[in-house]
Structure formats: structure tokens, C-alpha cells
Please model this.
Amino acid sequence: MNNKLILAIVFIYFSGLNIHAQKFDNLAETPPMGWNSWNTFETNINEQLVKDIADKFLELGLKDAGYEYIVLDDGWMARERDEEGNLVADPEKFPNGMKAIADYVHSKGLKFGLYNCAGGKTCAGYPGSRGHQYQDAKLYASWGVDFLKYDWCDTGKLNAQESYITMRDALYEAGRPVLFSICEWGDNDPWEWGEDVGHMWRITGDIIDCWDCAVGHGSWASFGIWKIIELREKEKTREVAGPGHWNDYDMMEVGNGMTDAEDRSHFAMWSMLNSPLIMGNDLRAMSKETLKTLTNKEVIGVNKDPLAVPAFRFNNEDNIEIWAKPLENDAWAITFINRNEESVDLDFDWKKYQLADDLSQQYFKPSFKEYAIRDLFQHKNIGNTGKNLKTSIGVHDVLMVTLTPKS
Model:
């Protein structure tokens, strides 16, 4: 065999390998929306819970609002793999197995997701995927899994980027399109390498249902809403988000114990920041106000805006946070968040401010152009930028508006 033929064979072989070295395209073109079991149920999950949640997606209008994925987090599997090394669904929690659950979710026009971990054990001590990535990916495909949340516990000296690339390639080789959610907590700067590896990546540790707190757990801590928002604000995360690759601020705590005002602010900011909107509450028992917040299509529309540029903080006066998000057609979304412990009266003179966003190359100049103002939580037009914006904002509440240029 001559050298040219050998080189040709080698080239064809490695070209074939490179076919698999990618993530699935055309997924998460807008930030994913869905539900995850962990925030409320941790490992206390079962078959009936999944069916109930799927039913509620339709009954409560969540599917119509854009929610799509139902994801089982840690604890769905048995404590040991079978004799062939395959993961096994916990026979008590899921007596009919994962494929039956996936089929039920699919029958509702929804998509089904599972959790695993890059390490030898998951964070709750169940079998991780280390050394079984390709085997697990084929199993997920046979069950009809559409979403994989991949955690970072028990990883020892593993390289994060390489570990997630391995699982990405395994999913691709298995052949079923899977939205790949990188969950290594932002410790290894996933925003610098995640675009080619996953469809979303966590940028912080775990969220907890409080406004602005940190709860220690020994070597790590859970963070409240504002701790999460502020943790990576100075990192170059905003520049790398976009269709198919999003910063993940973690599953939402809307409906899990904060005030309705705090829930509105939480939901508004996740939408402004282009975070995936993954519910974490018990849909079977939520209040009408929680449902109203979670199904607010005008706020969701800001999250889904085709320009796909996350918000930035442009002002903070007297503990009133003001965040701006450029939208398509030279429009803007603006949120005013009251971080004070008492209500405040707002008298905001638009003409004192100009915005310039280098990322979107979009400008807001109310001295030269007038904008119509729409309140997204009240669902009504409230004037224009030719006059001061005067209103009252409750404790930890939000005023979220869109500004549309007037012709």
C-alpha cells in the first residue's frame, strides 16, 4: 500500500470521527422553557408526579405559554447499574421504566429530560456517567430523552471542558437530538467554551428561594435571586449568549415561598437576562398569582426577542436597580426593581438618560426620539417618553416596560 493511499484512508477515518464532534443544531434557538423536579422535590420523585406535571402543562396553559420540557433531576435511577452496566430506573419510583414516562410526556406534545453527572456518582450519590458516557447516551436515545442536564459532582481531577465534550459527542453518536444542559456551576468558565459544547450552561451555584441571601452547605453555598444575578455580572457572559447557547441562571424559584412581588422581579430578570425559564415549583398546588406570573406572555416575549441580546444594568439610584435590554426594531425593555424594604415613588425623567449598547449597536436617545411605553405586568400602555414616568413600586417589586419608537 503506497503512502498516498495510507494518508487518504487516515484522512477519511478522522473526517468520519469529526462528524460526531458537534452538538445538535437547531435546538434552543430561544432560551428553553420547561420544568425541573429538583427545587421542590429533590429526589422524592415518581411516575405519578411526572404524569401530573405533564397534565398541568396543558390544563393550566403552560404549554401554550411556551413551556416545553419536563426534566427529572437527580434520584430517578436505582443505586446500582445492572449486570451489563446500564442505568436502571428506580423500580419503586418508576415501575414502568423511563420509556413509558417519556412516551406519556410525548403524548401531551411535550419533551422529556433526565439528569446525570460527569463524575462517578451524582450529587445525591446515584450512579454517574463517568466511564459510561456512550452507553448512557444510547440508552437515553432508546428511551426517547430530549434533554440532558449534566452535573459536576464526584469529578476528581477531570477536565471540565473535555468531560462535557465527551458527553456531547456520545449524545450526537446516539443519533437522537438532545438539548445538552451543562451544569458545572460556572467554576470552569463555561461561557468561554460552552457554545460549541452545549445549548445552555450554568453560571452559578444552586439557587435557593430567597431574595438576597447565601446559605452555606460546608464547601459550597446556595444563592438567592440577587446573589445569582450579581455573581457573574462583571464576567464576559453577556457577550457569548445567543441562539443555541445560553447563560443558565438556574431553575426558577417562582412560587416557592418568596412574595408575589419578589416572584415577579425574579421572573422579569430571568427574562431580561435571556436565561432559560425552567420552573421549579409544584404546579399542582400553585396560586393564581404564581400562574399569572409564569404565563405572562409579554414578559416571556422579552426573553424570546429575536435580537437575543441579554440585559445590562445601566443605573442604580437610591437602591432602585434599572436594567436595559435592547429588542428588535430599535425597541427596548427596561426594568425598575425596588430593592428597598419600603415602597418608593418613582419620578423618572427619560430625557436625562441616553443608552448606548456596544454589543447590539443599539441606542436610546429620548431627547431626539419619542418612545411609546407599555407596562408588561399591567398589560397596558402608559404614555410615552416625552413625559416623566411617575408611579409607585412596592417592596422588591418590579416595573417592567417596553419602549417602542414612535414613527
The first strand starts at residue 33 and ends at 36. The chain is about 25% helix and 25% strand. The CA atoms of residues 239 and 278 lie 22 Å apart.
